[in-house]
Amino acid sequence: xxxxxxxxxxxxxxxxxxxxxxxxxxxxxxxxxxxxxxxxxxxxxxxxxxxxxxxxxxxxxxxxxxxxxxxxxxxxxxxxxxxxxxxxxxxxxxxxxxxxxxxxxxxxxxxxxxxxxxxxxxxxxxxxxxxxxxxxxxxxxxxxxxxxxxxxxxxxxxxxxxxxxxxxxxxxxxxxxxxxxxxxxxxxxxxxxxxxxxxxxxxxxxxxxxxxxxxxxxxxxxxxxxxxxxxxxxxxxxxxxxxxxxxxxxxxxxxxxxxxxxxxxxxxxxxxxxxxxxxxxxxxxxxxxxxxxxxxxxxxxxxxxxxxxxxxxxxxxxxxxxxxxxxxxxxxxxxxxxxxxxxxxxxxxxxxxxxxxxxxxxxxxxxxxxxxxxxxxxxxxxxxxxxxxxxxxxxxxxxxxxxxxxxxxxxxxxxxxxxxxxxxxxxxxxxxxxxxxxxxxxxxxxxxxxxxxxxxxxxxxxxxxxxxxxxxxxxxxxxxxxxxxxxxxxxxxxxxxxxxxxxxxxxxxxxxxxxxxxxxxxxxxxxxxxxxxxxxxxxxxxxxxxxxxxxxxxxxxxxxxxxxxxxxxxxxxxxxxxxxxxxxxxxx
Length: 588
Fold this sequence. Notes:
Blueprint: E1 5-7, H1 42-57, H2 62-103, H3 119-126, E2 176-178, H4 181-186, E3 200-203, H5 226-231, E4 238-241, E5 258-259, H6 261-267, E6 271-279, H7 294-299, E7 302-307, H8 308-316, E8 325-326, E9 329-335, H9 342-351, H10 353-356, E10 360-366, E11 370-372, H11 376-383, E12 391-395, H12 402-412, H13 417-430, E13 447-455, H14 458-473, H15 478-490, E14 498-500, H16 502-508, E15 509-511, H17 515-519, H18 551-564, H19 568-578
Parallel strand pairs: 3-4, 6-7, 6-10, 7-9, 12-14
Antiparallel strand pairs: 1-2, 5-9, 8-9, 10-13, 11-15, 12-13
């Protein structure tokens, strides 16, 4: 036993059956005396117990008693052996428990102050001039904080994704080696990762912003000019950049993308890890995470951002009550959303979580259509801590070139073609080239951006800010601008992104359909097991071609339907066998 969790979501293994203790019933040859109607005293019962046992043992059942004794001894020896093994395993994991307890002592210096008795004081805490921030980084990265037991997955051979078949075409999940939750928790570094070059990051704040150039962004983003955009890629020790929320005194308070004051106080709390998602325009159905450990359920909050349209639908369907909780998800309602496009509104929490959660160390973003099926501690250990990485995202399952991704977006109608062409031509003039082996070790220019795993440090915050500015300036298709921002930052500082395989992403999230597709889907067809078939009566209207006003043809159809009678089912099945290609009229 190595203790390694090998998660293969395409297979399922049943739990072993637990042995049940049977009762041994001995049948005696003698005829038992019927009990008297009067109850005997306790003393007489004790006096008769010993002679009864002696008489029972004098019978020929002594062999059965010996067998029972041996079975009892074997059971007790196995029980004590199991206890000793459990004690040894608990001793092994004591090291990880001590390391986890140490990691829980991470400094939480920056805490927001709230007063539940006064809304005025709440507003002042939201709008204080020097808000708490955790953008400072430690001098060195704690590479030795990961215990030695994390090498349990080093010998894991990464298999290729399973091939598709006719029943299940398209990409498939592949096995991923996760450490147990206790070891993953102990693997969390005790110190914040180092941010190369950039140490202090602040953001533009303008009450009034004016658009002076075409394709310059939005009022929410502050309309940064081309000159300001280019200067933001010049990495320095201290920088001030556009990063949304340019108005108001605090992100989410009179800035556009407004959040209630009580929720803002909640978002300012200190957490080591959070999980966040969003649904705007009532576009998706909330998916509840599964296989979440007790420690994660207690220590890691799950936040779901929704707009007023989604809130109204959820309240009308009784999915949301006054507690603002749906399963593990804590619902945050957003008012005064800055864009008319719901997908662009979703990019605000997706890329700017560090602005909404100023006192959070790690975050996991998943799109609203995804269901998380692996513990967050295991994800962070697998994709960040194990590689000493600060930002992780999966590559696209098929395309790795931006130009091919642009053509695919135009073919699928994801955005208007003119805007996509303008953005690609802009990047081409800046020096963007098709992907080639010359970019190795970079394996792809196109991400599958539905999952982002990151640590909140200045360099990753800068990356997502500049990525958001590209989405705000050009199209909302963030796959088109990802490589441009990444390459410009990597050209100046020693920083990289962990781009993992898409089949690994599909191992820990399950993708559901959007709400509009679910509402138009037909009801599920009854399943067939073996040779038994369940007949489902589905009304099917089959048009019968009739030429002209030939009433005799209509009458012949009616007569043939009457004549079939009891033989209708047999004749119908024979016709289906003779004509297997006619599947539209087949009813199972």
